[in-house]
Amino acid sequence: MPRQTPPWHDRDMKTSAELRAFSERLGHEFARPELLLRALTHGSISTATRPDNQRLEFLGDRVLGLTLAEALFTADRAATEGQMAPRYNALVKGETCAAIAREIGLGDVLKLGRSEMMSGGRRKEALLADGMEAVLAAIYLDAGFEAARAVILRLWAARLANVDADARDAKTALQEWAQSHGMGPPRYVQTARTGPDHAPEFEITVQLDDGREANASGKGTKRSIEQAAAAALLEQIEGNT
User: Fold this and answer.
1) In a domain, 3, yes or no
2) Which of 14, 69, 86, 187 would be a feasible disulfide site paired with 167, CB 3.0-4.6 Å?
3) Where do the RNase III domain residues begin and end (predicted)?
4) What is the mean pLDDT of residues 182-207?
């Protein structure tokens, strides 16, 4: 019996083809593809008959959280709550969800209003993270928890394997090191900011009381660049001990 093509309910055939391709990258074929369309619909283009993805985002956040909490609990049965919490936070934070969304090209299929699209909405971290969570909820509603769990564990596999490194909070670690050596908290100085408002690029210098410092630059949130600068200074310190 030939495989049926899912009944994609979008009048734009090009869009329908893009959604099918995205579904393949995601690793889930939707029996109810209208759920995926809703998960990708931003408030800037929603209508009374085409709701946005905010409710799905709410649900997807919980599906993601339970799946990853269970995975961490099972992977290391000797881990304490204090050890699991930062690992969990590293896996579910917006930056991680947005990074995975980029890996599967979610931004390319987001449904955005013209103004949001013109302001770079397809690259915005918050929109990507929200869309990723909404898509996970769509899978859950379409095929149940086990289907959503399987997709999450596949997409998050590399990060689960390296969660200890990802969970290390460089800013906290640097502050603890400074305090243990009789210094005040590290100082973070923004030395440059370039790029448009929707995709800023920061350059941050972190300084210690003893004169040691390190720089980091790149796109993302200011906090993420501060974390990178802190990590660079920690690496410098560890290399000299």
Assistant:
1) no
2) 86
3) 19-144
4) 90
By the 8 A CB rule, do 105 and 40 touch? no
Q: Determine phi and psi for 180, rounding to 5 degrees.
A: -70, -15
142-172 pLDDT, tens digit per residue, is 999 999 999 999 999 999 998 877 767 778 8
Within this chain, do residues 149 and 98 fall inside the same structural domain, yes or no? yes
**Cβ of 123: how many Cβ atoms within 10 Å?**
15
- The CATH code of the domain that includes 233 is 3.30.160.20
Parent domain of 85: 13-167
Question: What is the spatial distance between Cα 55 and Cα 71, in angstroms, rounded to a whole number?
Answer: 25
Question: Which H or E run contains 35?
Answer: helix 33-39
- According to DSSP, the residues that pair with 135 across neighbouring strands are none
State residue 167's pLDDT score.
67
Cα distances (Å, whole numbers) of residue 129 to 15, 121, 123, 178? 21, 12, 10, 34
Q: How many structural domains does the chain have? A: 2
- Residues tagged active-site: 61, 133
Q: Which residues are annotated as a binding site for Mg(2+)?
A: 57, 130, 133
- Is residue 219 helix, strand or coil? strand
Provide the annotated binding site.
57, 130, 133
